[in-house]
Fold this sequence. Notes:
Elements: E1 2-7, H1 12-27, E2 35-40, H2 53-61, H3 65-79, H4 84-90, H5 95-103, H6 108-120, E3 128-131, E4 135-138, H7 143-155
Parallel strand pairs: 1-2
Antiparallel strand pairs: 1-3, 3-4
Amino acid sequence: MIIDVWSDVVCPWCFIGKRRLEKALEQFGHKEDVVIRHRAFQLQPDAKETVSTKKHLAEKYRVSPEQVKEMQANVCAVADGEDLCAVAQSVGIPADDVKNLLASRQFTNEVIADRDLASQLGATGVPFFVVDMKFGISGAQPLEAFVQTLETAWSQRA
């Protein structure tokens, strides 16, 4: 079984969805038969400059700074405050290397190919999960949705 996972490194809901998939796999009786392919999806491929998250969210959703603060608190509560550089450092990757890679265009062609495939499969946002190119989960759905999709996909394998 192959699970393709589209995400954007700046999206906290992608991390939440990843954790829910991992928990579902812990309950799945065929975990050893699962291959996960991580794919890229840029939420803002046309971004030209770096802006603060608070400013971006306020403009995007047309909300007040106080509402942005509440939105971020909710996401942090769900995600438990993880960040990409901290995760990379925890596995021995220097934070500067992560920042330099994220600022580069080294994997541009691969990112575009992943985005195009996600679009063909109907993704309009992330996280987006596809099991065996047949069963999709859009968003950081509850754990039960992941468990049910895995079981359904496994039962329908040829």
